[in-house]
Amino acid sequence: MLPRHRIGASLVAAALTALVGCSSGSDAGRDGAGEPSGGPAAAPDATSAAKATQAFNSAKELSRQVGAMEMQITKKCMVSQGFTVHPPDPVAMPDADSADAPEGRVSPTAEQAAQRGYGAAPATEGEQPENSTQEQPGPWRDLPESEKQRYTLAKSGDPDQLVSYETGEGKFSSPSGGCMGETRKKLYGDMPKYLRLMWLTDNGMRHEAGRQAEQSDAFLKAVGNWSSCMEKAGYGGLKSPTEAVKKAKDYYGGKDAGKNLDAAAVETGRKNEITQAKADANCADTSKYDTVWRTANRKSLSALYVKNEADLVAYQEILTEAQKKAQKMLES
Question: Which residues are CB-contacts of 117 (< 8 A; sequence separation ≥ 6)?
């Protein structure tokens, strides 16, 4: 299996935090409404590509603005119901297109490899695991669990009452009740249509472009060069950088990483991980698979923007109207 490249989640996905993530499904190409069809798309001419890319960028910028306004309106609704303590706002991840995003990199950089390997080391006693979901100290964390549940119900409504769009990879869902559900219905109107267009813009085309890039001859050759390089470095049998990350976890006990390991065993595993990560970083650079993937991915994205330009424009129109409505709701 080729690596599913790491791409930063969009800001709007963080802003619309209660959207339910889709479950894993088939990677086969689809031709359903709102889903880019599989298979390489024909390369567009420069004028068409520029026009469609502008439509995409405009839709993304609008979604950022409206998403932030939606959060304010939802919080205003919660305050009106007597809730004065709120959970911390979600932290937005960088978009894949932003300058500081990893843009598909799976292997660590040389600097990352030397400092932390892949970050696979389990936390020892007294350490905080990386990417820990533990709540930070503050008024929200100190609330009784019953009050948090009451807050969640008021904000999102009945968890079994959702409005959804079937993506082909799983359901992309949003609350239909509570402050959040009511706010979204007022802003976006036709929620299934909104979810379809949001999915296409934020995920659908990106996923399809990634699949196309991974199937390109240039990328397959680059990954083969990476694998050969890793074999020469003493790490034979690895067919993709994703497998290298999995192998690193074996240094700590695989899927049971960290269980029954003392500090000395963890430290030994950490040294082995860093040594492998350094080799991986070097092979990634010499094979240039990362650069090859980015080039193929951007080419596929450009063609998909052109192919789905009508939907991108429709999404802009929904968001433009939502922005006007949101401004009035915030001013009232």
Answer: 108, 248, 270, 273, 274, 276, 277
94: left (phi over 0), alpha (psi -120 to 50) or beta: beta
Amino acid symbol at 92: A
- The region, left, alpha or beta by phi > 0 then psi within -120 to 50, assigned to residue 26 is beta
Q: What is the dihedral of CA 204, 210, 211, 213, to 10 degrees?
A: 140
Are 255 and 249 in contact by the 8 Å Cβ rule? The answer is yes
The model's pLDDT over 5-55, given as tens digits with 9 standing for 90+, comes to: 433 333 333 334 445 444 333 333 333 445 665 555 567 789 999 999 999
Angle (CA) 300-32-45 rounded to 5° is 30
Q: Using CA atoms, how far apart are residues 257 and 268, in angstroms rounded to an integer?
A: 13
Residue-wise DSSP of 121-181: PPP-TTPPPTT--PPPSSTTTTS-HHHHHHHHHHHH--TT-EEEEE-SSSEEEEESSHHHH
Three-class secondary structure of residue 200 per DSSP: helix
Backbone angles phi, psi at 225, to 5 degrees: -65, -40
Q: How many CB atoms neighbour CB 48 within 10 A? A: 16
The residue type at 267: E
Task: Provide the CA 26 distance to its chain's centre, in angstroms.
Answer: 18
Chain-centre distance of CA 270, in angstroms? 27
Alpha carbon separation from 70 to 87, 236, 239, 293, 315 (Å, rounded) = 16, 51, 44, 35, 16
* pLDDT tens-digit series, residues 278-288: 999 999 999 99
